[in-house]
Amino acid sequence: MQGARIISVGSAVPDLRINNRDISQIVETSDEWIVTRTGIKERRVLTGANKSVVDLAYHAAMKALHNIRMDPLEIDLIILATSSPNDLFGSASKVQAKIGAKKAVAFDLTAACSGFVLAIVTAAQFVQNGSYKNILIIGADVLSKWIDWSDRKTCILFGDGAGAAIIQACSEEDNAILGFQLNTDGKQSDELSITYKENPYSLNTFQLFQGQFQYISMNGKEVYKFAVSKVPASITKCLNALDLSTKDVNWLLLHQANKRILKAVADRLSIDTCKIISNLSKYGNTSAASIPLALDEALQNNKITKEDIIVISGFGAGLTWGTVVIKWKC
Ligand code: UT7
């Protein structure tokens, strides 16, 4: 078996900031309510004609490549974790073309806010079994395009962003993607969704159906309860399988959905809150982008040092949730 490790990270957010006071001009809410219930102060929103998730993914990917002066031609595979592509057939191929990674195969991975965790795990399989050497994974979402801006239960939460990481093959002894634990409960899929609604229409003698996607809908309370119960269990299972304890954990990097969820998960695991990596006050919930965006910021602030154990967990629509434990090697 080959080893796999993250050798570079990059991220990108749009320039436009929308703060809680701006949102309180649109729906009946307040800065105080949003900060107290979520920890979010502002979020970034993508604007501009024909700007899409591809633009954010491109900038994040280029930063990750530039950091290590890697030629895009060295990339073997691109995995774009997104739930907001600009093409239902996938946006990864557009990113591949834009960064000039001509030799890379590219595909989208849809797993909502768990997307980046799934992307790390998927990339690690391809590297560890010897199929590929360099894999670019990107978590990017522009959920602002799917928000009902008159729904105060959801419009306060989400923001746009992208984060990328390059996973490279290494010796088995240097393997840094230590283990994972993944789950799906499709029975709860209606708790958080962007549903596709159809209407019948007639074509000659045929009755056919066509429709369109709706806005994001979420049962916030149920998703909250799901997150604070399932995520700690997933982390515990993953650590146990690796013969590690919560005391070995240097950093807890969770999907940035709500500061109360981050704290509740840490408390349940008896992990000191100072080990929580969090930047959601500035960006809100950026779905698949939230984990790499927070990882990049923590690295830029020199929080993470070599040999640190980082527990990364994603959770969200599907419902999906999962954990990957990595050792930082750079
Ligand atoms: O990324 C995928 C994962 N997503 C998540 O993890 C999200 C999980 N859920 C949450 O983070 C929280 O459930 C929310 C932040 C979405 C909501 O917080 P909450 O403490 O669960 O509030 P709630 O939905 O129970 O609403 C409490 C009250 C309600 O009023 P009543 O019925 O008590 O009179 C709501 O109508 O707050 C009201 N409310 C608001 N008030 C002001 C709901 N949204 C707002 C708002 N501003 N934006």
Cofactors, ions, other ligands: oxa(dethia)-CoA
Percentage of residues in DSSP E strands: 25-35%
* CATH homologous superfamily classification of the largest domain: Thiolase/Chalcone synthase
Strand order of the largest sheet: 1-7-6-4-5
In total, how many beta strands?
Answer: 15
Task: Give the overall silhouette.
Answer: globular
CATH class of the largest domain: Alpha Beta
Number of helices: 10
Stretches where pLDDT is under 50 for at least 5 consecutive residues are none
The level of helicity is: 25-40%
Chain oligomer state: single chain
**In sequence order, what are the helices and strands, one letter per element?**
EEHHEHEHEHEHEEEEEEHEHHHEE
Provide the domain count.
Answer: 2
Overall residue-averaged pLDDT value: 97
In brief:
With 330 residues, the chain is an alpha+beta fold.
Write the layout of secondary structure elements.
Elements: E1 3-12, E2 17-19, H1 20-24, H2 31-38, E3 42-44, H3 53-67, E4 77-81, H4 92-99, E5 105-109, H5 115-128, E6 134-142, H6 152-155, E7 160-170, E8 177-184, E9 192-193, E10 196-203, E11 206-213, E12 217-218, H7 220-241, E13 251-254, H8 259-268, H9 280-283, H10 290-300, E14 309-316, E15 320-327
The protein binds oxa(dethia)-CoA (UT7).
Oxa(dethia)-CoA binds next to α2, α6 and α7.
Tell me what you see in this structure.
Helix 3 packs across helix 4 and helix 7 (220-241) packs parallel to helix 8 (259-268). Strand 10 (196-203) and strand 11 form a beta hairpin. The chain is built from 10 helices and 15 strands. It has 2 domains: 3-173, 3-Layer(aba) Sandwich (Peroxisomal Thiolase, Chain A, domain 1); 177-186 and 217-327, 3-Layer(aba) Sandwich (Peroxisomal Thiolase, Chain A, domain 1), CATH 3.40.47.10. The chain has 330 residues and is α+β, with helices and mostly antiparallel strands. A 5-stranded mixed beta sheet has the order 1-7-6-4-5, with helices on both faces. A 4-stranded mixed beta sheet has the order 8-15-14-13, sandwiched between helices. The two termini are 21 Å apart. The model has no long low-confidence stretch (mean pLDDT 97). Oxa(dethia)-CoA is lined by residues 29, 33, 37-38, 113, 152-153, 156, 192, 220-221, 223-224, 227, 257-258, 261, 285, 316.
